[in-house]
Specification:
Layout lengths: L6 H33 L4 H18 L9 H19 L30 H9 L3 H11 L5 H8 L3 H27 L1
Length: 186
Amino acid sequence: MKIILTESQYSKLLNEVADFNSLYKSLYPKIYRQVCLRYSNGDREKADDFCQLGFIKLHQKFSMYDGSGPIEAWARRIIANTILDELRKEKRSPYKNPVDFERTNLEVIDDTPEESLYSSKEIKDAVGTLSSAYKKVFEMFFFEDMSHQEIADELGISEGTSKSNLFKAKAKIKQYLINLNKKRED
């Protein structure tokens, strides 16, 4: 199969490649430090992967830049969105200190401060602060060991809503426990 280009199409293509190469060379160090390293929490290998994916996406969308606004801001937004998409795919949080919940029975935690940071009552209080939708998904996932698909079927919601509600529930519980620690320190 032959692709025939007119002379103007060929020169436009060459100009786009040249423009992208100069953009890449000027933005890469700054984007790497300010965007990719930040989202990778300092992990240089992951930051390299993020930059590579981001600049590939930027190259694919380069012809869509309409000239409104600074090209650096436009490039930064595309690369940041690409990284966020990757983090969602990996089911990782973009926050620096993600909460690591394990599927354990939280009621088994002992009330003695030497063995546990939080008492059973404090954990129950934290769960009690959740809205009914968040609480139901949280309990079904951790206490009843149900998958997101099973929760979605049971509650008549989408699997994505189940995942979102669980993520938000964990964030609210984490914030409650952080505030509890602050009160203890005061």
